[in-house]
């Protein structure tokens, strides 16, 4: 361009030079034009792209804008529902009850939906009155020592802090608990009381289910009185008999990419092949079993110690925490179900929810095979509940068997008694029922829809992360017993764990696990004395506690008295961890080791007898040493007897009445100085 400008300004050029320059000028003009066009095209291209991006911005904003997905009110309005049944569930039972209640609603011209409180904003309860004939039902299980279940924790926290006016809300609560526990049905009672305090209207009395008795019967009894109360309140009537309505439809996949098929994963597809932290209930870690040894020297029982490698998992645990294990059902039971129902268990299928608005698209991860579902996802060993029997009855071709199933599923006293004796007390699982009712041959897909999910099993961790940061230890006893029908029933998890022998390639010794935090904790000050009571496998968390106290001592910390009360049947048969405990005692970490051998003499001796024997020392540790007490093991008998013994000791040495002693021990619990890790 500079050259061109100069040429135009020079009048002295001769004609030949001028022609040459003109040729040059044309070529330079071409360059200029090409450059100009290129520049314009480039500018237009980028400008056009920006112009196209501008309309996209609002779209992007609408995606990230807050949605009303968390509003169960909007969902109920959209789908025409007027009853919502929330469930606080740890093992799936409360969820199952919630589903049954929501399905009941159609019999009364109402429409229900079961809902996980973790997925919704519960502050919307104040808006439920916007829906005609609306009702909120809460099936709330209590976990541990009066705690909410994991999925109800946020709801519990909200209830505690809420000052919302719920005067337009109508509600009912059914609690799931166990009377052997100190805080029986605490969550159900709290939700019922708190909703009333916030102004909500209770339309039916609180139901208290007891798993130590017959939880199913408690639920049926409550339910058969609950619906008439609902009818009376809303002025509606039952439209007909209970009918069988399928919740899922079967889709069989004949041509499917096997990489898209679930093979036992709990959440993400291929999560067992490509492990990614954090690990939890929906994403368990595959831990390799590095040790599996029998702990007892004799006797009929099999007590075992397992060590699980958690290296590179980023899993952290504390002494007293629980490890959850996802087991697998016995392949022989699975095969027998397949044979009886004449099914190819390797058929790949999906069960898809017929309610397209439901958050729960499948009853278990799909697509998968029937074999995988029956092995990893479904509970085939527990006696089925009455709703399962009712739904299955239609497939019995023998009228006698059909009537028997319907009777057991009814609310009549005779039916309840038959269900209790023939199913519950005889411990008949689904396979036993199919075997004992030859005409009952349901479609396997409907059976898979009805069976509850196979749940994780929790074990008290028998190690300290201070000593074993990359390993979790389990102490378990293999469950095996003869039923009234002569069948040999085996515990799902313990028999499966027994087979997990460490090997070279590691494939057959992998166990899906995650850690659940516990309140069962050593005192903050190592100098605080501890009294631990744990007979049988109840000693598990105390092995971790003692390991930690030994480690603290090695660090130069002042460690208080560490007292253990342990019990087993026979000294020569089932005294577990004898060598470890003896060593800890010799090293001075375990200051007292008191062992009760219940059956080595004519009169049975249990841990509570040894506590009474050392009552003066016990009182001194509690009263003067401010000791922390820990009880682990059987809730039904041992924990109760031990607690009564503490009442006696406190009453005698504290010069208190029985009522004052009970109050004293309860206050120890409130202060975290009396902790329980018990099961029934």
Automatic annotation (TrEMBL):
Protein EC: 1.6.2.4
EC top class, as a word: oxidoreductase
Boundaries of every FAD-binding FR-type domain copy: 282-523
Positions of the UniProt region annotated as Disordered: 1-20
Xref: InterPro entries: CysJ-like_FAD-binding, FAD-bd_FR_type, Flavdoxin-like, Flavodoxin/NO_synth, Flavoprot_Pyr_Nucl_cyt_Rdtase, Flavoprotein-like_sf, FNR_nucleotide-bd, NADPH_Cyt_P450_Rdtase_alpha
Record field: transmembrane: 25-46
Biological process annotations from GO: response to hormone
Domain Flavodoxin-like, first and last residues per copy: 83-227
Keywords for this protein: Endoplasmic reticulum, FAD, Flavoprotein, FMN, Membrane, NADP, Oxidoreductase, Transmembrane, Transmembrane helix
Cofactor: FMN; FAD
SUPFAM superfamilies: Ferredoxin reductase-like, C-terminal NADP-linked domain (SSF52343), Flavoproteins (SSF52218), Riboflavin synthase domain-like (SSF63380)
Superkingdom in the source lineage: Eukaryota
UniProt GO cellular component terms: cytosol
Pfam families, per the entry: FAD_binding_1, Flavodoxin_1, NAD_binding_1
GO MF term set: flavin adenine dinucleotide binding; FMN binding; NADPH-hemoprotein reductase activity
PANTHER family xref list: NADPH--CYTOCHROME P450 REDUCTASE (PTHR19384:SF17), NITRIC OXIDE SYNTHASE-RELATED (PTHR19384)
HAMAP family listed in its UniProt record: NCPR (MF_03212)
Protein's UniProt name: NADPH--hemoprotein reductase
Underlying gene: Por
């Amino acid at each position: 361009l500079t050259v061109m400008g100069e040429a135009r300004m020079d009048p002295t050029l001769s004609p030949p030079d001028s022609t040459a320059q003109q040729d040059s000028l044309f070529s330079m003009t071409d360059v200029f034009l090409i450059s100009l066009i290129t520049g314009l095209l480039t500018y237009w291209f980028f400008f056009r792209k920006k112009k196209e991006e501008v309309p996209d911005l609002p779209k992007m904003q609408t995606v990230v804008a807050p949605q009303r997905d968390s509003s169960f009110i909007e969902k109920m309005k959209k789908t025409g529902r007027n009853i919502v049944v929330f469930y606080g569930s740890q093992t799936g039972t409360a969820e199952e009850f919630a589903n049954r209640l929501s399905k009941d609603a159609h019999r009364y011209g109402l429409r229900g939906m079961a809902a996980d409180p973790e997925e919704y904003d519960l502050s919307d309860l104040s808006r439920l009155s916007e829906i005609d004939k609306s009702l909120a039902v809460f099936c709330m299980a209590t976990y541990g020592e009066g705690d909410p279940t994991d999925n109800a924790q946020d709801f519990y926290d909200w209830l505690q802090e809420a000052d919302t006016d719920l005067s337009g809300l109508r509600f009912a609560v059914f609690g799931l608990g166990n009377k052997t526990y100190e805080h029986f049905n605490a969550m159900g009672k709290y939700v019922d009381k708190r909703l009333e305090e916030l102004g909500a209207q209770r339309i039916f009395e609180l139901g208290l289910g007891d798993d130590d008795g017959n939880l199913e019967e408690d639920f049926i009894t409550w339910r058969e009185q609950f619906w008439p109360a609902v009818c009376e309140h809303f002025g509606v009537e039952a439209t007909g008999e209970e009918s069988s309505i399928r919740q899922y439809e079967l889709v069989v996949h004949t041509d499917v990419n096997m990489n898209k098929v679930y093979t036992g994963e709990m959440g993400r597809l291929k999560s067992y092949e490509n492990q990614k932290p954090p690990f939890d209930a929906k994403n368990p870690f595959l831990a390799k079993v590095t040790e599996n040894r029998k702990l007892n020297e004799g006797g009929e029982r099999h007590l075992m110690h397992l060590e699980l490698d958690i290296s590179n998992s980023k899993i952290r645990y504390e002494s007293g925490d629980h490890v959850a294990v996802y087991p697998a059902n016995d392949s022989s039971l699975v095969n027998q179900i397949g044979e009886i129902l004449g099914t190819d268990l390797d058929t790949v299928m999906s069960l898809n929810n017929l309610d397209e608005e439901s958050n729960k698209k499948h009853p278990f991860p799909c697509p998968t095979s029937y074999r995988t579902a029956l092995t990893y996802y479904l509970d085939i060993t527990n006696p089925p509940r009455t709703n399962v029997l009712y739904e299955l009855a239609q497939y019995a071709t023998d009228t006698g068997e059909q009537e028997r199933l319907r009777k057991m599923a009814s609310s009549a006293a005779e039916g309840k008694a038959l269900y209790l004796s023939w199913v519950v007390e005889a411990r008949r699982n689904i396979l036993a029922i199919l075997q004992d009712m030859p005409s009952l041959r349901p479609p396997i897909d409907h059976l898979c829809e009805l069976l509850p999910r196979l749940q994780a099993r929790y074990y008290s961790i028998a190690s300290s992360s201070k000593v074993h940061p990359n390993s979790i230890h389990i102490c378990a006893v293999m469950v095996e017993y003869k039923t009234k029908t002569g069948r040999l029933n085996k515990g799902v998890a313990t028999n499966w764990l027994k087979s997990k022998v460490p090997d070279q390639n590691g494939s057959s010794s992998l166990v899906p696990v995650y850690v659940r935090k516990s309140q069962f904790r050593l005192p903050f000050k190592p100098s605080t004395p501890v009294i631990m009571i744990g007979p049988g496998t109840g000693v598990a968390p105390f092995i971790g506690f003692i390991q930690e106290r030994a480690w603290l001592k090695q660090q130069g910390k002042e460690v208080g008295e560490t007292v253990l009360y342990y019990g087993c049947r026979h000294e020569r048969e089932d005294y577990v961890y004898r060598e470890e405990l003896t060593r800890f005692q010799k090293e001075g970490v375990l200051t007292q080791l008191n062992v009760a051998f219940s059956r080595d003499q004519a009169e049975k001796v249990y841990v509570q007898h040894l506590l009474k024997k050392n009552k003066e020392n016990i009182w001194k540790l509690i009263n003067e040493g401010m000791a922390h007490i820990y009880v682990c093991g059987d809730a039904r008998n041992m924990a109760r007897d031990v607690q009564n013994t503490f009442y006696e000791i406190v009453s005698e040495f504290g010069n208190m009445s029985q009522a004052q002693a009970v109050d004293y021990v309860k206050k120890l619990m409130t202060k975290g100085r009396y902790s329980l890790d018990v099961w029934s």
